[in-house]
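Hi V.,

You were right to ask for the full record rather than a summary. Here it is.
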Amino acid sequence: MDENEKICYNGPVIRQADKARPAREEWDMQEREHPLAKWFGERKIVRLMLLAALLALGVIHVEFIINTVLLIWRVASPLIVGAALAYILEIIIKRLEKIMLPNSKKPWINKSRRGICILIATALLVSFIVLLIFTIIPGLTDAFTLLGRELPNYFTQVKAWLMDLSQPVPAVTEYIESLNLDWPKVQERVINWALNGVGNGALLSSTVTVIGMVTSEIANFLISFIFAIFLLGSKQQLNHQYRNLLHAVASERNSERVERVLSTANRCFSGFIVGQSVNGLILGILTWLGMRIFHMPYALMVGVLSGTTSLVPIIGGYIGAALGTFLVFTANPSLALWFLLFIVALQTVQGNVLYPRLVGSSVGIPSLWVLAAVSVGGGLGGIGGMIVAVPITATVYTLLHEWVHKKNREKQSQEAERP
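Predicted structure:
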């Protein structure tokens, strides 16, 4: 190849490089002139703008959002309650499956194990509900009947006690002695108020309303219960469909994030439910045993009440103590103070020894967060809101704690790589 051919051969290559170089320089200049191009390319600014727009719309239409949520709750409440029942039963079923021949190689045992565990868990839940109904309702009826019969005697005894205390002050003694209640008239007024209500026909209207409410609640509970059983029976199929849907609509990275959030929530909720249940069971047994030892009335009912009310964080113990003191007072006023001292001592030991080991380790949030969660949850959803707010707060706290630690590790690694 002569020199002219070399010039002709190399010429086009030089001209193509010369054409490509200005394009790259122009693109680099555009990137330098527009530093937000990278941000728009990664869609971070767009996401922030959408989030700000959604927050603004939420603040503007907050009343509409609340009404919509309440409407959805009213319509779907049986299904939501059924899903909650299924979740609670699933915790029991998992523990039963670990007990009932988990290493068996017989096909019929492996196929029927879950169905048998569902039946046992359902029987345990129904037995607990029946125990509550047939223990608490008759006991409360007897307590109020006894209180109505013995209230005049209690008033006379309290009046005599106050007169003995006020003997140094004759004016107070005379005033207390002048206090006389016509108990037949008081009972007549209470009965007339209960029968007549605020006007004519109020009794019939109230009775129909109460019957309708009770019937509606029973029907909703049956729907929830049946829906929970169907969910438990279709767990594997629903789990498979959920994973297929998640991998279809989300990337692998986002799927892992969702799985991590759900796993953390499941760990916090299941740990809270198991810890609270065991704590309530122990408290109820100890309350019943102590009352039997000290020969106090209503031992079984007060034990069941104390164990059940302790499921509500923080205030549940106070509710159980107040109800128990009232019941003991109706039967024997002299034992009410001793019962109050006993239950306060028992709950102090339980709160400082048992609760941190059973619930604190599983939830893992400071007491201040628990108090805040109970306050906000109670304001939004009553007793149910108090119970649900603690594991939700624990989930958010755990995820935030992990995110902060991750960011700190990344920052430390970046600082270590710098010269």
